[in-house]
Design a protein that fits this description.
- It is a single chain.
- It is built from 5 helices and 7 strands, in the order ββαββαβαβαβα.
- By secondary structure, the protein is of the alpha/beta class.
- It has one domain: Rossmann fold.
- The protein has a 7-stranded mixed β-sheet with strand order 1-3-4-2-5-6-7, with helices on both faces.
- The two termini are 15 Å apart.
- The structure holds guanosine-5'-triphosphate and magnesium ion.
- Magnesium ion binds next to α1.
């Protein structure tokens, strides 16, 4: 898919204030600092479109971007950041749960996972919840450039083995790097395919 146009549209704290659900929507979620905003910039080829930061907790709201005037990309705040208070955590959960249940145009959630890490309960639980609620999702293993290909392969195999313990059918997964552009075509082709369904 060629990205001709990518624009920031709105930031909202509530799903009912988000843009009218007139186009297919794809949301990026995962632990704080996993690289959600960076991946949006890599996919759209526009550095600085989504705000990134080396310190976790940068993205705080539901951010809508319009791509090619045909679909929405959504950058969500991350979860699992240790320094966040219980109250903020509960607010995050309320905002995200409401968002996930109230976007009829949400075609797929991209759950981002740092490709260097072994399976973390917070991610596994989040994906289980998506499964229980029947919300379609795929996994994206990020920051592949941070270690060797053989290390990534081994970590990915371990991760998928762990997933296999609770999933009959493994979710589709992608391997990406916002630094090298790895996985860009695969993710964009996937979105193009879903847009056509
Ligand atoms: P929050 O908005 O805080 O939840 O974080 P986020 O998931 O949006 O992460 P963000 O894109 O802001 O990236 C966090 C840090 O990781 C930044 O310092 C990025 O430069 C770095 N980063 C993100 N993706 C990659 C990648 O693929 N490779 C490398 N080497 N660094 C990355
Ligand atoms: Mg972010």
């Amino acid at each position: 898919m060629i990205i001709n146009d990518a624009r920031f549209l709105t930031s909202n704290s509530r799903a009912d204030l988000c843009p009218a659900p007139t186009m297919p929507e794809y949301a990026f979620i995962g632990r704080s600092n996993v690289g959600k905003s960076s991946l949006i910039n890599m996919l759209t080829g526009r550095n600085g479109l989504a705000k990134t930061s080396s310190s976790p907790g940068k993205t705080q709201l539901i951010n809508h971007f319009v791509i090619n005037d045909k679909w929405f990309l959504v950058d969500l705040p991350g979860y699992g950041y240790a320094k966040v208070s219980k109250v903020s955590r509960a607010e995050w959960a309320r905002m995200i749960n409401y968002y996930l249940r109230h976007r009829p145009n949400l075609m797929c959630v991209f759950v981002l996972i740092d490709s260097r890490h072994s399976p973390q309960a917070v991610d596994l639980e989040f994906m289980e919840k998506l499964g229980e609620e029947g919300i379609p999702f795929v996994m994206v293993f990020t920051k592949a450039d941070k270690q060797s290909t053989s290390q990534t392969k081994a970590l990915l195999a371990d991760y998928l083995k762990k997933m296999g313990e609770s999933w009959d059918e493994l979710p589709r997964h992608f391997l990406t790097s916002a630094e090298t552009g790895l996985g860009r075509d695969e993710v964009l082709n996937f979105i193009a395919d879903v847009n056509q369904q």
